[in-house]
Amino acid sequence: xxxEAIAVYDRALAAASAVPEIQFPVMTHVxxxxxxxxxxxxxxxxxxxxxxxxxxxxxKALGYQAQLLSQRGMIASQRGQAAEAVAxxxxxxxxxxxxxxxxxxxxxxxxxxxxxxxxxDIAGAERVLQEGIGVARGIEERFLLPRLLAATAELEASRRxxxxxxxxxxxxxxxxxxx
Length: 179
Prior knowledge:
The chain has 179 residues and is mainly alpha-helical. It has nine helices and no strands.
């Protein structure tokens, strides 16, 4: 269905171009790039995100910049460019903090930790996960918090801290049962 999504986004972009007040519909481009990613068209998706990032930078839209950099980090990760992915996630986290975009911080923490763990940077993964958990708890985010807790439990288990891992999984389970 990604091909269909691209067609819908293309129609939306064509319609938006006829309305000068819309200027550059960032989220429409983000959606289009997500569909391109699902099709494996990484270069095209990255190009769309880079263009949208330039617009967001000029508009000083920190939240959009963070979202776009995070997606570009995911592309770098898919390309096997772990160092670039972590760097983009780091920039995205800084922008999300500056924007006060707490849910976005939690989302980026999950992705960044995944790449850092693959690169055996356990301390870095733990650091971003703890930030994500802190933010998710602060805003009472009930969908991302269990995922953050589960990712942290995996780290704990990899360190052979099974009791701590079990506690985190129990907490995640309690949250999910309360949904």
